Amino acid sequence: MLSKILITAAVLGGVVRGVPLRERRQATVPQFVLDYAPLVWLHSQEAYLPSDISAQLANTKPEHEFVAVAGPSPLTLDNLNQLNSPNTTYLTSTVDITTNPAFLNGVKPDASGKTNDAVSAAIIVNDHGSGNVDAFYMYFYAFNWGGIVLGQNLGNHVGDWEHNMIRFKNGVPDLVWYSQHSNGEAFKYSILEKNGLRPISYSGNGSHANYAIKGKHDHTIPNLNLPDGLIVDNTDQGTLWDPTLSTYYYAYDPAASSFTPYDSSTPVNWLNYTGRWGDEQYPDSDKRQKKFFGQPKYATGPTGPADKQLNRTDVCPSNGNECIHRGILVPRDL
User: Fold this and answer.
1) Residue 238 contacts by C-beta under 8 Å, 6 or more apart in sequence?
2) Is 105 left (phi over 0), alpha (psi -120 to 50) or beta?
3) What are the residues facing 40 on neighbouring strands?
4) How far apart (Å, rounded) are the C-alpha atoms in residues 120 and 263?
5) I need a labelling partner for 140 at 20 to 30 A (CA). Which of 6, 51, 181, 310 fits?
6) How far apart are CA 160 and CA 158, in angstroms?
7) Using an 8 Å Cβ cutoff, are 288 and 279 in contact?
8) Radius of gyration (C-alpha) of the chain in whole angstroms
9) Which residues does the annotated region (Disordered) include (predicted)?
């Protein structure tokens, strides 16, 4: 049974003051996970919008090294994990992506922020006990456009998983993680731009990297976010997306590495899929492929939510980079 809470929506001075119709699938989802769920501003020129997770299966075929992989037919979110094997499986587009097949474009959120007829997110809750809870807000896009670098389009790939993570202490948000390319940024919740209780995330045009403020974000140097430079993500207040309106909800057990849906009708096996959510990087011999200083125009698709370090020690993933808990909103490390 879905319940709806109506929150008055208004925009004043470019800052959203509210958002309507947050659908909640079961009361067993911790209330604070919903109350503080991020809202996402998509860029005004975004061509590759949030996408239905299951539609990715309907428009791809499993392959390894560009050879078909045997698997269940039809492929669904209930049986996707049956593709797991020692060899990496790639969900490869059935149509040449340079023709821009329609499924890559996703679904534009409506006036309430909902992607109608498209479940485009997953919310995963890891309760560490003693009042410590991490909530992962996973966002899915069918395509990542990598942007332009010195006149060259680089870093495109089919499939794109991005996320925010909020670390709660006794139901109160403490820190928020914003995924960005190979790393990201963590901020104290108290200093973030918000819509009521809900922190705002700005999605980079094409790349969907998440930022705490709008504007330009250079990410040429790993773990350093500058206001301008060579490789830039652009963010603005284009279309407001409320991922909670079309999402799957799960509890995560790190000891068993298992997921339990809050609603028993929700598919769960897809979260155990270990392959990639897009095409394998095209070889240099492929006429679609180009390289610029060793960087490909078309890269390999991403892994799924289970590979995003769901049982973190700190709010940041453990990747060798310093985890800075930022207490000021500027597009760089302070």
Assistant:
1) 41, 42, 43, 44, 45, 46
2) alpha
3) 201, 241
4) 17
5) 6
6) 7
7) no
8) 19
9) 294-313
Q: Which residue has the tokens 């979110």?
A: 77
Measure the CA–CA gap between 184 and 232, rounded to whole angstroms: 14
If residue 112 lies in a helix (H) or strand (E), which one and from where to where? none
**Residues 179, 317: Cα–Cα separation, whole Å:** 10
Q: What angle do CA 34, 38, 44 make, to 5 degrees?
A: 140
Tens-place pLDDT, residues 287-326:
999 999 999 999 999 999 999 999 999 999 999 999 999 9
DSSP helix/strand/coil, 57: helix
CA distance 209 to 306: 18
How many whole angstroms separate alpha carbon 264 and alpha carbon 1?
12
Burial of 166 (C-beta count, 10 Å sphere; 0-12/13-18/19+): buried
Contact 206, 144 (CB under 8 A): yes
pTM above 0.85, yes or no: yes
pLDDT tens string 60-93? 999 999 999 999 999 999 999 999 999 999 999 9
Q: Which residues of 281-303 are buried (b: 16+ CB within 10 A; e: fewer)?
A: bbeeeeeeeeeeeeebbbbbbbb
**Pairing mode, if any, of strands 60-64 and 148-149?**
unpaired
Q: Do the Cβ atoms of 5 and 22 come closer than 8 Å?
A: yes
> pLDDT tens digits, residue range 230-265?
789 999 999 999 999 999 999 999 999 999 999 999
Contact 173, 190 (CB under 8 A): no
Query: Distance (Å, rounded) from C-alpha 137 to C-alpha 202?
Result: 14
Separation CA 284–CA 30 (nearest Å): 48
Q: Computed from CA positions of residues 19, 160, 123, 233, in that sequence, does the dihedral angle turn out positive or negative?
A: negative
Cβ 242 vs Cβ 39: under 8 Å = yes
Q: CB–CB of 12/22 below 8 Å?
A: no
For the chain, the distance separating the N- and C-terminal CA atoms, rounded to the nearest angstrom, is 45
